[in-house]
Structures are given as C-alpha cells and as structure tokens.
Specification:
Number of domains: 1
Order of helices and strands: EEEEEEH
Number of helices: 1
Number of strands: 6
Oligomer: single chain
Helix content: under 10%
Strand content: 25-35%
Shape: globular
C-alpha cells in the first residue's frame, strides 16, 4: 500500500528519472526510507533509492537529485539505500 512519507507521496507505477534525464525504472514499493524500482529493459538490476534522493514528484513521474550513474555506484542496486 502506498502511503505518504516525508515530503512526497510516491505511488507504485511512478516512473523514476535521474537528474540527467535517464529513465531508471518504475516504483514497485515505497516506504519512509526508500523507493524500490524495477529496472527498465536493458539495465542489469533493481534499485532501492533513498527517499532523500527524490527531488520532486509530479503526477506519474519522480525526478531524482542524482545522475544516472550514482545509484549503481552507491550500492543502491544491492538494497543499500543509505541516506545521502
């Protein structure tokens, strides 16, 4: 069940984009600490993005405050959704 947390309400199905405009995936779960994304075709993994990395949510789109390469480099593909 989706629920409000922090500054955002992030429903499942929301498309998530990096700060440089890359589509990272679609929200499959959201809680007070992180949003879980299923990967778009061609990417190697799912992501667990800390809520602190979400810059804004508008309609069915969420934009992060990190570049496309940061989620993988940060260990967010292994469920290590540490706050920034």
């Amino acid at each position: 069940m989706d629920r409000p947390h922090g500054r955002f309400w992030i429903p499942t199905g929301t498309k998530v984009y990096s700060a440089d405009g890359a589509h990272l995936g679609t929200v499959t779960e959201a809680n007070a600490g992180y949003i879980a994304l299923t990967e778009p075709a061609g990417l190697p993994t799912d992501y667990f993005i800390p809520v602190s990395a979400v810059a804004r949510v508008s309609g069915s789109r969420a934009d992060l405050n990190v570049s496309e390469s940061e989620p993988l480099a940060s260990g967010w593909d292994r469920g290590q959704a540490h706050p920034r």
